[in-house]
């Protein structure tokens, strides 16, 4: 029984990181209808930015996190303004291919700006092991779970009650009608890219605090994307919850079956779920009238 509990709790910890990255995917899709295939690379860039601040300026955790958040927001806004805004009105496939090209550029920039070696992001906290009731988790893992739960609650309030949240839902539902009602689609898109970059960046920083950072971190996007599909591309909250589900499923599969099953368990799950619910566990069914 203790083995099951250990697998479940550690699965929730890694699933929280998947959930943060998945929420980043969903925020952009909900606002723009676009899948950002550079999400993993943006996560990696923000983690390297945090490491740069920690090693060149100060290792104070609050300064590093604040700098990473600001840098992530600037990165998201720059990508939206310079790269994605000129693509407004172009075919959706063209926009997707632009994000693929952006992913390659950002991935290559790591070795140009930094290097190809792994590095430890040691901020004095996060790597310490916390024990409670026979369970052991690192501080950054606990922080990831708490952060995800906090963001889930925050986004629920944001979409239900805030002006920008309602405007984002309106643009996602019908951008032309939203424009006629005075909603600036460009502003909403910029907000979505900034928010997505910040959310995924926080996930990247927390991951690096536990597992170190390296140019291979872009693969986090491949781990977070199945959670977005499982939860529903248009469901920000569902994507976060699906990240927890996939994290636990992977750990249980690796612990009770074979270690090799851990890498494919999430993908097997989305195949099964999408055969029953093509729009995901929490996504909205799209009704097309003909």
TrEMBL record:
PANTHER family: ABC TRANSPORTER PERMEASE PROTEIN, BRANCHED-CHAIN AMINO ACID TRANSPORT SYSTEM PERMEASE PROTEIN LIVH. This is Branched-chain amino acid ABC transporter permease. It is found in: Cell membrane. GO terms for molecular function: transmembrane transporter activity. It comes from Chelatococcus reniformis. It comes from the Bacteria. It is a multi-pass membrane protein. Keywords: Amino-acid transport, Cell membrane, Membrane, Transmembrane, Transmembrane helix, Transport. GO terms for cellular component: plasma membrane. The keyword Transmembrane helix applies. CDD domains: TM_PBP1_LivH_like (cd06582). Belongs to the binding-protein-dependent transport system permease family. LivHM subfamily. InterPro entries: ABC_transp_permease (IPR001851), BCAA_transport_permease (IPR052157). GO terms for biological process: amino acid transport. The chain crosses the membrane at residues 7-29, 49-79, 91-114, 140-159, 190-211, 264-282.
């Amino acid at each position: 029984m203790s083995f099951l509990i250990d697998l479940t709790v550690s699965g929730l910890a890694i699933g929280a990181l998947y959930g943060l990255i998945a929420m980043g995917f969903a925020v952009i899709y909900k606002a723009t209808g676009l899948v950002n295939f550079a999400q993993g690379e943006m996560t990696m860039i923000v983690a390297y930015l945090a490491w740069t601040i920690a090693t060149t300026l100060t290792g104070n955790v609050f300064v590093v996190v604040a700098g990473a958040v600001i840098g992530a927001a600037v990165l998201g806004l720059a990508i939206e303004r310079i790269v994605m805004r000129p693509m407004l009105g172009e075919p959706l496939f063209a926009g997707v291919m632009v994000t693929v090209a952006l992913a390659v550029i950002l991935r290559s920039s790591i070795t140009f700006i930094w290097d190809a070696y792994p590095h430890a992001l040691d901020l004095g906290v996060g790597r310490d092991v916390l024990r409670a009731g026979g369970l052991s988790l690192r501080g950054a893992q606990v922080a990831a779970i708490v952060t995800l739960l906090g963001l889930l609650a925050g986004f629920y309030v944001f979409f239900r009650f805030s002006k920008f949240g309602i405007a984002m839902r309106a643009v996602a539902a019908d951008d032309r009608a939203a424009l006629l009602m005075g909603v600036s689609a460009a502003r909403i898109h910029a907000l979505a890219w900034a928010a997505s970059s910040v959310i995924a960046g926080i996930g990247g920083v927390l991951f690096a605090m536990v597992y170190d950072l390296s140019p291979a971190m872009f693969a986090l996007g491949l781990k977070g994307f199945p959670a977005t599909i499982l939860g529903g591309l248009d469901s920000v909250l569902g994507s976060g919850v699906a990240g927890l589900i996939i994290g636990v499923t992977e750990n249980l599969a690796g612990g009770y079956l074979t270690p090799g099953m851990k890498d494919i368990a999430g993908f097997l799950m989305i195949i099964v779920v999408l055969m029953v619910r093509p729009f995901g566990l929490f996504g909205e069914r799209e009704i097309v009238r003909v």
